[in-house]
C-alpha cells in the first residue's frame, strides 16, 4: 500500500534519508522489498521541522523516483526531524491532498494500510470528527479520516490513547457494517518533539515495521563504518522496511505495539484499540 | 470565480465551442470579460455524451489556455451535448476532483459562484447528503456538495424542484450560521437529454448568464454568416458570457430564473429556493 | 525501457486495447513481464486516427495505471488505428514532449530502446536532421531524434529504407565516438495506412517484439472464444509483449527484421542498417 | 512575456520576496502591471544558493499563484541570493525544462523577452553552442539557447562580454534570416557572488527593468518603515517591475545597459551587442 520513514536526530540533508541508503525510500518507490505492492508510485510527501511555526510539507502526485524537485529539495534542505511517505493508492484519487504526511498545526501523521470497505464506513467515521476540526479535511483518503479521528479523540494530549480510541472506533464502526477486519495500519505521528509509531491490524497480521537500534552499539560493532560515525547518538529511524542490510541495525516492531521515540530513546509499549 | 458553457445541438467538434469563437471559453480562461476574476486558470473540465453509458470527462488542473491535451481532444472529439468549465478557485485545492463538471451516472453538473463561509457550513451540508450517495464525494468544493444535495433532494426526478430545495437548504443552513448571503450561483445540469440552467444569488445580484437565441431567426438576420448555416436549428448554448459579439445572438437570463432547454426549445421559468 | 502496441483493424474502443486484455498495456505499466524494467511509469501516450487531418495525441507524464483521463478517453474514443506507449525513462526528463508516439503530419513514431551514450552523439545526430524539419523537435529524447533522422532520410517515401539509413547513421556516429553497441530498438511507425515495425540492436539481442496471428485461424482454433469473433479479419497487433496467454495468438518477430502490416496482411522482411 | 526578480542581501525567507510585497512576484503571476501579458501563468521557477555546491532549483509548470509547494517552500527556505521567475510562454511547451532560472554549475540565468522568429534561427544558434556544453540542453526555449550561447562565449570568465557576443550573434543570425528585430530581452545571471542584469532589445524599446536603491538612504527617508530596517545595507533587488509603491525605492534601468550588483553596490554600464 505505502512505505514511510520517520527520522529524528541531528540535522541531515534529506538526500541522506531519501536517496543514499541502499534500500532508500526513493528506491522503494519503484522496488519495495516488503510492501504489499512493489510499486509505490502514486505520489509522495515529505514533512520536516525547520524554523517555522509549523513543519514544511512538500507533496507531489508524481512518482518519487522521477521527481526532480524532490531531488533538488533533498540536496538543499536539512532537518533533524523528517517524515517521508511514498504512496500506493488503494483507489482514492492521486492528488496532493491525498498525499501523506497530513498536517494539523505542529502535528504530522502518516499511514500505511487501509480502513477496509472505506466507502461503507466513511460517512459514519466522518460524522465522528470534531466539528471544529471538520473544515480542515481536504482529501478523500481513509488515512486522513483516521488522523482527524485521532485528533478528535485527543491526539495532542495523549497520543497513544487517542490513537487507541480512534482505532477502536474504526473497528466498532466497521463491524457494525459487517466488515470482518476493519483496519490494517502502521502509523507514525509527531508533534515535532516525540515520535509515536503504531503497528496494528484487526486481523493480527500487520504490515512490516522496524526501528533502528542504538547508534553507539552499532559503532562498536562496525568500527570502520563511516556513516555510523556521522550520526548523532540520539538518531532514530522508524521505517516500513530497513533502509539497508547492516546486521543488527534494525529491530522489528512487534504486532500490536507502539514505539515512542524521545531524545534518542525508544520505548516499546503494547497497543490495543479502545472502544468508548 | 468560474465560467462555463452548456451546448446542445448537432454534433460539433469540441474545438468549435472551446477555441474558435471570438470570446471562446479558452480565451476566457485568460481574459474573461464579465467574470469576477479575469483569470480562470485553476483547472478546467469538459464533459460530453458519446456512445457510452455515461458521459466522458476530461478534467485537468492546468490552465485551459496552455493544455495541449485539451487542444488535441477538441480537434478529435465531436458531440451533440457538451458541458465545459474553467475554474477560478476560491480557495479549495486545484485538483482534478475539484474540477467541474461533476458526474453521477448520466448526470453532469457545473457551477459558477460560491457557498459563502463554506468552512462554517460544510459539515451541516455534508450530513444532509443521502448516505447512499455519500461515498461518491471525491473533492472538497462547495460546488460538488451542492450537486450532491441536489441529487439527495431528487435531481433525477424533478431537477428544478431538487435544485430549489438544495438552494433553500443551503440558505437556511447559512443563515443559521449567521451568513448574510449564503449562496451565489449559476448552475447547469443535464441528464444528456435536457439541460437545466439556474441563475440565482441570495443577494439578488447573480453572476452573468446568457443563452443563445433561435438559430433560424439569426440566419434570416445574417444571411451571409456561414457559421450560422452550419448549425442545426435546435442548437442552443447557455453560457456565463457571450462567445462573440453578434448582435441579437445572446439573451441574458434574468435573475432568479431557470432555463430549460429541450430539443432546441428553451423555456424560461422563475426560480426560487424552497425551504423544507 | 518502454512497452508499446500498434493496432490496426476494425474500430475498437481504446479500452479494449489498453485495459481489458489480461496483460494489457496499462497492466504492463506497473508489471511488465518481458521488459528490461518491470515498471513503466514515466508517462505514456496514445495516438489514434480519427476524422481529422492528423492523428490525435493524448500524452501524459502520469503513470498510465493511475491516470483517470486515460481511462475516460479509453471508454469514449474508438479508432481503427492506434499507437500506444508507456515509458520508462532512461534519464531524460518526464515531460509530455518526451512521451511517445511522436507525430509529424500524418506520421506517428514510437520506440522502445536506447541510443547508447546519447549525450556523446546527440549533437552529431541533431546536426544531420534536415534543417526544414529541425524546428519541429520539441523534446530531449533519443527516440525523437531517431524519428527526425528517419524523416530526414525519407521516411514518407520509403520507410524501411529511411529507417535503415537512420539506424546506419546512428551506428556509424556511435562507433566514431567509441560506442560499442550504439543502438537498441523496437520501433513502430505508420502513416495511418500501413504500419512498419522494426526489431534491431547493434548487439544482436533486441528487446522483445511480437505480432498477432491471423484472426480467422484463431477463430477455427478457439470456436468458443467470443473476443475473437468480434475482431475483423484484418485486425493486427504488433506489441512489445503479448497482451494475453492464448496459445497460437502471438508470433515473435525475429531479430533484425521488419514487419509490414497492410490491410490485415503482415509481411516479414529482413532489416539491416545502411551506411551512406 | 515573463517577470522575474534577482535578490542579494542578508538571508530572507523566500516568502518575503515572493508573497509579502504589495506587487509580489506571485501577485504578478496573475496581474502583472507592466508586463506585455498581464497573466504569467505558464509555470515558474526559483533558484537559491544554500549550502550545496550548486544552487537549488524548484521548477513547476503550475501557475505560481496556486502552487502550494511554492508557498510551503517559501515559508521554510531562507537564502541570501535568490532568482525567481514567472513564465508566460510565447509558444514553447509548458514543462519544467522550459522554466527559468536555468542552471549550469554554479550559474543561474533567467530571461524575459524573446528571440524573434526562433523557429527560423534555432538551428543556427544551436550549432554555435560549444559541443562540450551541448548535452546539457534540456528544454526547447529561446531563453535556454541564449544561456548556452553566453556560456559558449565565455560567461564564466567575463559575463558582460559573453552576453554581448551572444546577443550580437543572435542579431547577426536573425538578420541573415531576414528578421528585423531579432532580440528582446531583460536577462539576469549570477555565479552566486555577483549579479549581472541586462536590458536590451534590437528595436530599442525593451521590457521594463528596475533595481532597488540604497537601503540606508531609504531608511533616512522613511524612518518609520519597519521593513526597511530589517534589510541589511547590502540588499539589492533587480526586478521586471517594482514590488511596491514606495517612492524613491526603485530606479529604472536605462535602455541598452547592464547593472552589476556586487556586495550591495550596483554599477551601471552601457551594453551593446558585439559581432565577432
Automatic annotation (TrEMBL), chains A, B, C, D:
Please give the start and end residues of each transmembrane region.
none
Pfam families cross-referenced by the UniProt entry: GATase_4 (PF13230)
Q: Does the keyword Ligase apply?
A: no
Q: Which UniProt keywords apply?
A: Glutamine amidotransferase, Transferase
- Cross-referenced CDD domains: YafJ
- The reply on keyword Transferase is yes
Q: Where is the Glutamine amidotransferase type-2 domain?
A: 2-276
- Highest taxon above the source species: Bacteria
> One GO MF term, please?
transferase activity
Name of the protein this chain belongs to = Class II glutamine amidotransferase
Q: Which organism is it from?
A: Lentzea tibetensis
Amino acid at each position: 500500500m505505502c512505505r514511510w520513514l520517520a527520522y529524528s536526530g541531528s540535522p541531515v540533508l534529506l538526500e541522506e534519508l531519501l536517496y543514499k541508503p541502499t534500500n532508500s525510500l526513493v528506491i522503494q518507490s519503484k522496488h519495495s522489498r516488503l510492501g504489499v505492492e512493489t510499486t509505490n508510485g502514486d505520489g509522495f510527501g515529505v514533512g520536516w521541522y525547520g524554523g517555522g511555526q509549523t513543519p514544511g510539507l512538500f507533496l507531489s502526485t508524481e512518482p518519487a523516483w522521477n521527481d526532480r524537485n524532490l531531488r533538488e529539495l533533498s540536496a538543499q534542505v536539512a532537518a533533524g526531524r523528517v517524515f517521508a511517505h511514498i504512496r500506493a493508492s488503494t483507489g482514492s484519487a492521486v492528488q496532493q491532498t491525498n498525499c501523506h504526511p497530513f498536517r494539523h498545526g505542529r502535528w504530522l501523521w502518516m499511514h500505511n494500510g487501509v480502513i477496509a470497505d472505506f466507502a461503507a464506513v466513511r460517512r459514519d467515521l466522518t460524522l465522528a470528527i470534531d466539528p471544529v476540526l471538520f473544515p480542515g479535511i481536504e482529501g478523500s483518503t481513509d488515512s486522513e479520516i483516521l488522523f482527524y479521528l485521532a485528533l478528535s479523540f485527543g491526539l495532542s494530549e495523549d497520543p497513544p490513547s487517542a490513537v487507541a480510541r480512534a482505532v477502536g472506533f474504526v473497528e466498532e464502526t466497521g463491524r457494525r457494517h459487517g466488515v470482518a477486519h476493519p483496519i490494517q495500519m502502521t502509523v507514525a505521528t509527531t508533534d515535532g518533539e516525540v515520535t509515536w509509531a503504531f503497528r496494528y491490524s484487526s486481523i493480527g497480521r500487520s504490515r512490516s515495521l522496524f526501528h533502528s537500534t542504538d547508534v553507539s552499539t552499532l559503532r562498536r560493532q562496525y568500527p570502520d563504518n563511516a556513516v555510523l560515525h556521522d550520526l548523532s547518538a540520539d538518531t532514530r529511524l522508524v521505517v516500513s522496511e530497513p533502509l539497508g542490510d547492516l546486521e543488527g541495525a534494525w529491530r522489528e516492531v512487534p504486532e500490536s505495539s507502539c514505539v515512542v521515540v524521545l531524545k534518542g530513546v525508544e520505548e516499546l509499549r503494547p497497543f490495543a484499540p479502545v472502544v468508548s
